[in-house]
Amino acid sequence: MLNILGRVDLAASSGKTVWHRASALSKLLLAALVLALVVFTGSLRLLVTLHLLAWGLAVSSRLSGRVILSALLYPLVFGALFALASWDGSWASPLRLLLRPTTACLTAVWLVATTPYPDLFAPLSRVLPGHVADGLFITYRALFELIGRAERLMRASRLRGGVTGRLRNRLAASGQALGVLVIHSFDRSERMYATMLLRGHSGRICGCRHYADVTRADLWVVGCAALAVALALALGGRS
After folding, report:
1. Are residues 37 and 147 in the same domain?
2. CA–CA separation, 26 vs 214, rounded Å?
3. Which H/E stretch holds residue 219?
4. Is the pLDDT confidence value at 82 over 80?
C-alpha cells in the first residue's frame, strides 16, 4: 500500500499523457459528474458502462496494471463482504454494490494520478474553509514523508532482526516503531509550522491559479463528460 501511494504521486507529477496537460478544474468536474451518476443511478447497464469508462480513464493515465489492481483491492473486498451480507438472492443487487465503489475508485485513481497535489487542492481551497483546505494540503504532503520514514524504519528493523523471534518480541518491536513514527510526526509538524511562519505564512497556503488554465487537452475531458451525460440519458431509465 505504501508503494502504491508513492507511485501514484510520482505519476501525477511526471506523467506526459493528455490528461496531465488538462486543467485540474475540468478533471475535478468530470470526476464529480461520474461519481454523481454512479451514486444516484439505479440502472445496471449505466453502471457497467460507467465502469468501463472509468477503466479507460485509469488505463490511459499510464499507470501500471499492478498499481490499478492494488488500488481496487480494498473497495472490492469490502464491497464483496457487504454484498454477501445483504444478498437478496439475485445477481443484480450485489453487482450494483460492487460496481459503485470500484468505479468511484478507478475515477479517483485517474484523477490523483494525473493531477499534481497543489493543483488538486487549489480549487478545493476556494470552496472549503481556509483552515480545512490548508490542513488537507499539508496532510497529503506529510503523508508521503511519513511513508518514506516508515519504509526506512521497517528496513532497519528487518536488518536488525526486529521481525523475527517470538510473537511477544515482534509485537513489542512494532509498538516501539509506531511510537517512533508518532514522535517523528509531531516533531515534523512543529518544524513545518515554524518554517511556514518564517516564510510569511498569512493564513492560506495554496494560492496558485493555474489549476483553471484551459488547454486543448481539456477537449478530451469535455468529450468524456459529454459521453457520460449521453450514456446517462440513453441508459439511465433502463434496469
Report:
1. no
2. 8
3. helix 218-235
4. yes
